[in-house]
Design a protein that fits this description.
Helices cover 64% and strands 9% of the residues. The chain has helices at 6-31, 39-59, 70-94, 105-130, 144-156, and strands spanning 135-140, 160-166, 172-173. Strand 2 and strand 3 (172-173) form a beta hairpin. The two termini are 32 Å apart.
Length: 174
């Protein structure tokens, strides 16, 4: 799911553009500029965008509610790139004449993974941490366990803000 916040939306748009750009540039490098007018290339580019959208939804790649370590995020991103390359390799194998229009999958992998990972880690993750909290939490209880829960929430889930602590028999305390 695409969580609220502008950074996840920018990240999604960038990734779609990067997948299409690498595919089109790879085709132009392999077959010349004339290849860019081939309908098959554009069909595969649209299919790549659809596969990316579906796969990222399944993996919750742009869900800013998820707090992932960078290695987990890199593994999910790698899986998405491998799926793209498998789709490209399948199209090159099954569709007649596709080998002359579509670029080789292995070469694109070497361009696409760093092209997606570097902006994600250097730009989009930093943007996400600067966005305001989008989830307010009220904790029932005022004892040490409640305070520890509040500190843990704010530390491990930066998009959540502890609004206060509610005594079971009294008013809200902030």
């Amino acid at each position: 799911a695409l969580a609220p916040g502008i950074s996840s939306k920018f990240n999604l748009a960038y990734d779609h553009l990067a997948v299409a750009a690498v595919l089109l540039l790879g085709a132009a490098a392999a077959g010349g500029a004339a290849v860019l007018s081939a309908p098959l290339l554009w069909v595969v580019a649209i299919a790549a965008a659809c596969v990316w959208a579906f796969g990222s939804g399944v993996l919750q790649l742009y869900d800013s509610w998820k707090v992932r370590v960078p290695l987990d995020e890199l593994a999910l991103l790698s899986l998405m790139v491998v799926v793209q390359m498998a789709m490209l390799a399948t199209a090159r194998t099954i569709v007649p004449g596709a080998a002359s229009v579509l670029p080789e999958a292995g070469k694109l992998f070497m361009l696409l993974l760093p092209g997606l990972a570097l902006p994600r880690f250097l730009l989009f993750r930093r943007l996400a941490t600067r966005e305001p909290a989008i989830d307010g939490v009220v904790i029932i209880g005022t004892g040490p366990t409640a305070r520890h829960t509040g500190e843990t929430l704010e530390k491990q889930h930066p998009r959540r803000q502890v609004l206060g602590y509610l005594r079971p028999d009294g008013p809200l305390r902030g």
